[in-house]
Amino acid sequence: MADVTIDASVGAGLKAIVLRSVVETDKDTIYVFYPDSTTNIFYRKSTDGGATWGSTVTVYAGNTVECVDIHADWWTPGDLGTKVYIAWMARTGGTSTREYRSLDTDGDTLGTAVSWHGAGGVNVANGWHDRSLTIWKSRANRLHIHAMQDDGAGDQIHAVSTDGGATWDSTLTPVATSTAARKCIGLPGNESSFNDVWLIHMDSSAVLKISVYDFGANSWVDTTIASLTTSDPVSFQFAAVTRHSDNHVILVAWSETGSSTADLRVWDITLPATITEKTAVQTNLDATIETDLFIDQATDDLYVMHLLTSGTAVRYNKSTDGGATWGANTAMADTEDNHLWVRTCPSSHPDGGRFIAVWNNADLLDLITNKTNSIETEGWTPPGGTPLTGASAQRGKFQVLADWSGDVDFLDANEDITADVRSMHIEHVRDYQTDYIEAKSLSLVMNNEDHKYSPPKGTITGLAAV
Hints:
Strand content: 35-45%
Structural class: mainly beta
Low-confidence stretches: 119-129, 385-397
Oligomer: single chain
CATH topology of the largest domain: Neuraminidase
Number of domains: 2
Mean pLDDT: 84
Number of helices: 1
Radius of gyration: 22 Å
Distance between the termini: 60 Å
């Protein structure tokens, strides 16, 4: 099967607007979110691994879309949810729309569009086109949105929702930049506190940084990752994804774009204090633009997408050893043409997935993919969680009850603790030599920010006796 057109009328501006675009819930079910050439955000869905695509579903229609990003529940370690979160900013003249909406992939139900930022606090006269907006979910179950604008020192916004996106507080402190802001990517992070999150970003001086947001202090601490050669104001020249086996973030970035000496560099980030540069994917390549990263969470294999030779070639390289070595430069697109933007799904799903890319052709104005050149990935068990492979219908459908009062009816206050469960692990051991079978053990990681599960401060009757 040759290259497949997903949509034939998307325009040629995706490279300046769309951060993350592709979501998969298994090897066959793929969603692509994107704006068209006018004022709409759509998604299309494939149920056969990208061979064919359904009709467009409208997420937003209104002002001219200037930046959009998505995040899926299962991209956050320990999260077993089924929702995709979409955030965007659109503008016509001095009228700016900053909204959020969710899609529940268990039934494909779109939530209501909600404003995540009110009037004021941002220069709407200066366009957010060619700038950056990112949405992500912390391990404490909070949604974050951070937006950056190329306006001198930059107009920045940081908004947080603690109720699944129903309401937003956009008064939180954003990252400070001393020069014009470029692109940014939000990530759950690997701090000891699940409340804290990371933002990787670059400014016009080509300094690539990681900033840690302390939720309790409402403040950021910046660490420089690298000083690159140039910073492209339009293309996304870096990508970052969380590896679930150890919560490390893998970061890839072009040292420069449109140059014959560009290197595609790689870092393994344990914490801002522990950043290890790995082997470059490519070195001294000509006229490079765009990159993206897919992690096969079942094997930790890395797949790095990139465009070469002024966008004519859509290629990738694979590493099976965490970036120490890289395989051959491999074509994803059958046709080499004027391609300006490429994206892949950041992370495979616990029910299995597919390394597949979508790209934008600037001449045909098409959104294109290729199933034949894609790679299926196996299901995997989230660390500390329940195995989900082959159990799509059960994702997020568990219920956990605790009999604090000891009356065995599980009906008293606080005995349904499902909403506070962050992850779970069930173990049942059998000794085949003696045929002895141990009792099953259940381990839970709980959301305990208010300390109600922590004796002696616990607020649940009977907890101290457990």
